[in-house]
Design goal:
two-stranded parallel sheet; mainly alpha; about 60% helix
């Protein structure tokens, strides 16, 4: 099994992206800014890593109360999500630094979270960004039978309640990631012949996954069991709480950007062609939220500006708020949609509505 040959139109509305790219290049030229990280990004990097590491060190050294230890694990959950959203994400897109070795090094922080950088780049950079909301290609909308994120996926009776139970499953996302997900992905991506996109063999990937998982669990469980005076159950409970917090945060940032009533879910024809320009398809299948929430945007790595991220994934997120005005005006000029919810709550509400629509109907608003 190899990846299907799917292509976007090269003659349909292509002037939009050409114009937009030119205007973004002019912005960086006029402002004399680099498209990569700035000093504020470096400070954020230090903060997010500290938010994850410092509580863990305290757990190993001075904390003796199970209640305080539980709070430290919760803080680690926020740090874990923050590292994924603000550091690892940009680095694995090659957007953190013009130096590929710095990107590689910071991309490796995913191992501290129990994940594989290779699998992440295949799932996210190649499948999700290239084929956004294309059923059968974008794994972000293919969670298996328990959830229905696409109107083209089969609907089962249990989906009627997915808008209720989805939030619990989201809590399990990173827990699945650090246990079984990477192994399943490695097998699947090998069958799809996607290993070559990362210049790695299946054997090398599997070896790196096994080693990273052993080291991850040796550190996250082994060190507390050896150095901490806390009971073993406090470590287990705290670890699960950390995973639940991180998983829920990550899902609540990524899902409201694509699984919403305004999404179109493009369908390739029999020849694998999609009758839309790639960039235009991003506008129809992506949504922003809370654009004026500065602190929120800072924590989530600018991923509330998902439209800008999808159109320019190789630009560091610290620039997205400035690029948003350019993108919005250009989209309006070409009579194209620019979907943006005023608040995060509004985005989550729209996502919940879409889950309910998909769970109760064979087709959903927005599909064409």
């Amino acid at each position: 099994m190899s990846i299907p040959s799917i292509s976007f139109s090269k003659s349909h509305n292509v002037e939009f992206y050409k114009t937009l790219q030119q205007r973004v290049r002019e912005y960086f030229k006029e402002t004399k800014k680099s498209r990569f990280a700035n000093t504020n990004m470096v400070i954020k990097t230090i903060f997010m890593i500290a938010l994850y590491v410092v509580p863990f060190v305290l757990l190993l050294t001075v904390i003796e109360s199970p209640l305080i230890s539980f709070l430290m694990w919760l803080v680690m959950g926020f740090g874990m999500a923050g590292i994924g959203l603000s550091i690892m994400h940009d680095a694995n897109h090659g957007a953190y630094s013009k130096n590929k070795y710095i990107n590689k090094a910071l991309g490796f922080v995913i191992f501290a979270l129990g994940g594989s950088d290779v699998n992440w780049r295949i799932q996210h950079n190649i499948l999700h960004h290239t084929y956004t909301n294309v059923t059968g290609m974008d794994e972000d909308i293919n969670p298996g039978k328990v959830m229905r994120f696409s109107p083209h996926a089969k609907r089962y009776k249990l989906h009627k309640y997915q808008h209720i139970y989805a939030w619990f499953l989201y809590c399990l996302m990173t827990l699945m990631w650090c246990t079984v997900k990477d192994y399943r992905q490695a097998v699947r991506y090998n069958k799809m012949d996607l290993m070559k996109t990362q210049d790695i063999t299946y054997g090398q990937l599997l070896t790196s996954i096994i080693i990273s998982k052993v080291l991850y669990f040796a550190v996250i469980f082994g060190l507390p069991f050896v150095f901490s005076s806390l009971p073993w159950w406090a470590t287990i409970l705290g670890f699960l709480a950390m995973q639940f917090i991180a998983g829920l945060i990550l899902a609540m940032i990524f899902q409201p950007a694509h699984v919403v009533p305004t999404s179109y879910y493009p369908v390739p024809d029999e020849s694998g062609n999609i009758d839309a320009d790639w960039a235009v398809s991003q506008l129809y299948n992506t949504a922003n939220f809370a654009p004026k929430a500065k602190l929120f945007s800072w924590y989530v790595g600018g991923l509330n500006f998902q439209i800008e991220h999808h159109l320019f994934p190789n630009i560091c997120h610290v620039h997205y708020d400035k690029l948003a005005k350019i993108v919005k005006e250009t989209a309006k000029e070409f009579n194209l949609p620019y979907i943006s919810q005023k608040t995060w709550y509004g985005a989550l509400r729209e996502h919940t509505i879409m889950l309910k629509n998909l769970g109760n109907n064979d087709f959903a608003p927005g599909i064409h």
